[in-house]
Amino acid sequence: MTRRWYPGSRGLLLAVSGLPALAGLAAALWVGADIDALRRVLATPGIELSMASALWSGAIATAIALFLAHIAMALAATGGWRRSLNNLALPLLAMPHLAVGIGLVLVLAPSGLLLRLVSPWASGLTLPPDWQTVQDPFGLSLIAGLVIKETCFLLLVLHAALSQVPAERLLQQARSLGYGRIKGWFVAVAPLLQRQIRLPLAAVLVFGMTNVELAIPLGPGLPPTFAVLLWQWFTDPDPQIHAQAYTGTLLLFAMTLLVLGGAAACGAAVRRVSQHWATGGARGVRERGLRYGLSGLLAALWALGMLAVVAIILRSASGTWRFPAVLPSGDVLSAWRVLAPPALDIAPQTVMFAIATAVAGLLLVLPAAESVHRNTDARRLIGALLFLPLLLPQMTFLFGVQVLLTRLRIDGTFVAVLWSHLIFALPYLWSLVAPARAAIDLRFADVARTLGASRQRTWWRITAPLLARTGLVAFALAFSVSVALYLPTLFAGAGRVATAATEAAAAAASGSLRLASMHAILLSVLPFFAFAIAYTGGALLFRQRRGVPR
Amino acid sequence: MNALVIDRVSLRIGGQPLFSDLSVRVEPGTVTSVIGRSGSGKSSLLAFLCGTLPGSFAASGRILLGDEDLTSAAPENRRLGILFQDALLFPHLNVRGNLLFGLRHGGSRRARRQHADDALESMGLAGFGDRDPETLSGGQKSRVALLRVLLSEPRALLLDEPFSSLDDDSRNQVRLLVFDQARAHGLPTLLVTHDREDVEAAGGPVVSLTDNRQESV
Description:
The complex is a heterodimer of chains A (550) and B (217).
Chain A: H1 9-32, H2 35-43, H3 47-75, H4 79-94, H5 97-108, H6 113-118, H7 140-161, H8 167-176, H9 181-196, H10 198-210, H11 215-218, H12 226-234, H13 239-278, H14 288-317, H15 332-345, H16 347-371, H17 376-387, H18 394-407, H19 414-439, H20 442-450, H21 455-484, H22 487-492, H23 500-509, H24 513-540
Helix pairs in contact in A: 1-13, 1-16, 1-18, 1-19, 2-13, 3-7, 3-9, 3-10, 3-14, 4-7, 5-7, 5-14, 5-24, 7-10, 7-14, 8-9, 9-13, 10-13, 12-13, 14-24, 15-24, 16-19, 16-21, 17-19, 19-21, 20-21, 21-24, 23-24
Chain B: E1 4-13, E2 16-26, E3 31-35, H1 42-50, E4 57-65, E5 68-69, H2 75-78, E6 80-83, H3 95-102, H4 109-122, H5 138-151, E7 156-160, H6 168-184, E8 189-193, H7 196-202, E9 205-208, E10 213-216
Parallel strand pairs in B: 3-8, 3-9, 6-7, 7-8
Antiparallel strand pairs in B: 1-2, 1-4, 4-5, 9-10
C-alpha cells in the first residue's frame, strides 16, 4: 500500500480543538482557586438570584426549544414540508445571538415595535407604558430569545439526525396503528432521534445558562444573570473584583457540571415516563386543537424573530422615532451616514477572521475526514471529542486561555483569535463534512484508482467535486460561527480586537441601541450572504448532473 | 497479453479465514468464473487483486501478470480494470468526461475527445458524450462503464457481478458484449458471480470459493 497523504491529520485536528480547552481549563483552575475571592463572590448581594436566573432561564429555554423543535418536526412530517421548515429556520439560525437579542429588545420593549403596531388604535396608548417587558426579573424575555434561536438550531440538528433513523416509516407505522401525528412522533420517532442529539442538546443547555450574548440585551438587570455578572467583573479595573471573576468562572463551571448531571437524570426520567405513556394504549387522536395551538405558537415565535430583523433595520435608520409611530420619521439616509462608517470600518476585520476560520477549519477537517471515511466509530468519536469544548462554559476556559496567551505574550494576536474561533467552528464543520465524505460510495475511488489515477488525483478529481456542495455550506457555516463569536474574540483578543460582535455587545451593554442596531445589521448580513452564496453556488455547480450529492 | 495468475492467495478478516491457498491461472482471451455464496470473499478477492482491500483484512499470496509481481504495487500501477454491479459513472462528469478520465494520457485535447466520441459510436452510443450519466438507462450505463475501462488499456479485466443489476433484456446483450470485447482485446478475465447463467455464458473454467475446487463447464 502506498503511503497515506494525510499523516497525523486526526491528531492535529483534535489538538487544535482540545489543547486550548484543556489547557485553558487547567489554567483557570490554577488561577481561580482562591478562597478569599470565593468568599467575596458568595457574599455579593443578590448572587443567589444571579445564579438562579442563569439556571432557570437556561434550563427552561432548552426544554421549551427541544419540545418545540420536535413539534415542528412532527407537524412537518413529510419531506417537502420539512425542507421548507429548514428554509424558514435558516435566517434565524444564521443570525447571531447578539443580533437577535438586540432586535428583540427593539420589538418587545414598552416603546418597541410590537406595541407600536397596536397603538394607539387598539391599545389606546400614546406614550410607552411603564411595563418591564424586557430585562424582566423572571428572565422571560431572555427565555423567549433563547427559545427562538435554539429551536432553530435543534431543528437543524434533528434534521441531520434523521439520516440515522427511518423516521418517515416509523411514523407511518405508528399512524397506521391509530396514533395521531404528534403522539406518534413522540412515542415512535423522538426517542430514537433523542439518542443522536445528546451532545448538541447539552451544548444548547450550557450555552443557555452561561451566555452573555442574549443575556446582556435581554436578561434581567438587577441582579444580572451570573455570566453577565462575571462579564462585568472581568471588565472592572479593580484587581480584587478581577479575582472574583476568575473564581466565579470556576463556580460557573461547577454549576454547569451539576446541571449536566441533572439533565442526564431528567432525560432518564423522561424516557421512563414516555415508555409508560407509549405502552398505555391511548392514541391521542383528538390532536387537532393541540396541533393548531402549537403551530400558532411556532408561527408566532418565528414572526417575533423576523420582526427583530425589521426592528434592527428601522432603529438603525431612525433619527427620531416617536411612539407610537410604526415607521421612523426624519431623514433615513442621514442617520445611516453618521452610523454606517464606524460599522463598516470593522467589517474587513470581521470578514477576515471569518474567512480565515472557514479556510483553516476546512484544511483541518478535510484530511481528517478522508482518513476516517471507512471507519464510522472513529468518525463519531472525533465528532464527540470536538464537541466537548462546547460543553464547557465559554468564559471558564477562555479566561484560562487568556492567562496562557498573556504568559506567552501572544494575546491579542491574529493567530490567538483565529485559534479561539476554530474551537467553536470545528465541531460544526466536522458534523457536516465527515458524514458527507463517508456517504460517497467507496467504489468511486476504487474505480478511479484502477483506471490509473493516483491517490491525490483521485481526491482532487473525484472526491473533491463530490464534496464541493457540502464544502460550500460548511464554509458558510464556519464563516457565520466566526462572525457571531463574542467572548472568544474578547478574551483571545485581549479586548483589543474589534469585530462586529464585540462592537455590538459593547453598544448594547451601554444602552445605545441605535449604534447596536447598526452593528447588528452587519452581524446578520454577513452570515446571510455567506449562506446565500453557498446555496446559489452549490445549485449552480453541477446543475446538469443529477447524480451529484446535495 | 499475459496470463493473470493468482498464486496461493489467502484472505482473513478478524482472524476468520475467508478462503485459503487459492491458485488460479487465467489465460489471455479467456474468462474464468469464481462462484461462491455471499460472504465467501468473492468481492474481497477482486479488491485484493485491485489493491484496494481495506486494512481490516489480512492477505497472503501473490498476484502475477506473466512474470510481473503485482502484489505490492499501487492500484493505479496495476492496470487491472474492474467493472462493478453498478456502473459507478462519476456523477459530476458527463459521459465523455467519464471516458476521458479512463483514457490513457497522451494526444491533444481534440484527439482525445475524438477518440472518446469514436468509442461511443462503436458501441451504438453516438452523440451521448454530453449527456448526464444519470439520464442513461441501465444498459447504456454499463456500456459506458465498459468503454471507460477499455480506454484505460487494462492488462486484465475483473468483473464483480456486473450484470446482476440489469433487467433481463439488457443483461444478455451486455453480457455478450463484455465477453466479446474481453476476448477481442485478448484480456485475461476473472468473473465473480453467483448467477448460473453468467457462468454458462462465460464458458471458461469455474472456481468455487466455498470448497476451493476447480471444475470445467
